[in-house]
Amino acid sequence: MAELMTVTVEVWPLAADEAGIWLVSDGDAWRFGPVEAASDVHYEAEVMLFNHDIDPDDAVFVRLPADTPRMDVLHSTSWRPDGPTIVLTYMSVVKTSGYVLDRWPTAAPVTAALPAAIGKAPPHRAAEVPIPRVADVLLHGIRHLRWLATDEGDAETAAALDANWRRHLAPLRPALAQMFSERLAG
User: Fold this and answer.
1) Measuring CA to CA, which residue among 107, 9, 151, 27 is closest to residue 174?
2) How confident is the model at residue 52 (pLDDT cuts 50, 70, 90)?
3) Angstrom distance (rounded) from CA 59 to CA 78
4) Most buried one in 20, 71, 100, 110, CB count within 10 A?
C-alpha cells in the first residue's frame, strides 16, 4: 500500500516594535507534525507558541506570567505540499512591550527590502505547482497580514495590529499576484 500524506503545521512568530517587524524564531518557522487526527492544526499551532513561552491567550492553557509575550493574531495564510506532507502555514503576531531584540536577541528583521533582496519566486506554468522558497512563504504570509489590515481584509485582525505593525506593513504590497509576474520562456 502506498504511503498516505500527512499534515504538518508551521508557525512564523512575528513581533513588531518601533524599529521594524521581527521574526523571533531564529530565522525559520516552528514546525510540528504529523498532526494526529484527534487533534486540530490551530490547536497545535497554539501549543507550539506555548512551548516557546508565548501565551496563546486561550482558556485551554495555564496562564503564563504577566510579562509573557502574548499572541494577538494567529492566521493561516497558505498550504503547500512538501514531500509526503501538506504544510499548513500560520502567521502569528506576537505582542511584547519594548524592543523585540530585548526579549529575543536573535530575532531577524523582516523589512520592506526583503522582496528585492530575495528576488522573485521561481516561475511556473499555469497548471504546474509552484515551488516556493522558505523566504517566499514568509513574504507571502506577511503580505497576507498586510491585506488583512486593509478595508477589504479582516476587521478583527486589523484591530489587533498596533501602530507599529500598521506602519511597517504599509510599504508591502498586499498580494501574491506580483510574485509570479513573469512568463516562462518558450
Assistant:
1) 151
2) very high
3) 26
4) 100
CB 115 within 8 A of CB 135: no
C-alpha cell belonging to residue 47: 501549543
CA distance 175 to 173: 6
Nearest to 168 by CA among 17, 3, 14, 6: 17
85-95 and 6-16: which strand pairing? parallel
**Where are the chain's structural domains?**
6-180
* 110-118, Cβ contacts within 8 angstroms, sequence gap of 24 or more: 110/14, 110/20, 110/21, 110/22, 110/23, 110/138, 110/142, 111/20, 111/21, 111/168, 112/168, 112/171, 112/172, 114/138, 114/139, 115/139, 115/172
Residue 44 confidence (pLDDT) above 80: yes
Q: What is the pLDDT of residue 89?
A: 97
Contact 110/103 with Cβ under 8 angstroms?
Answer: no
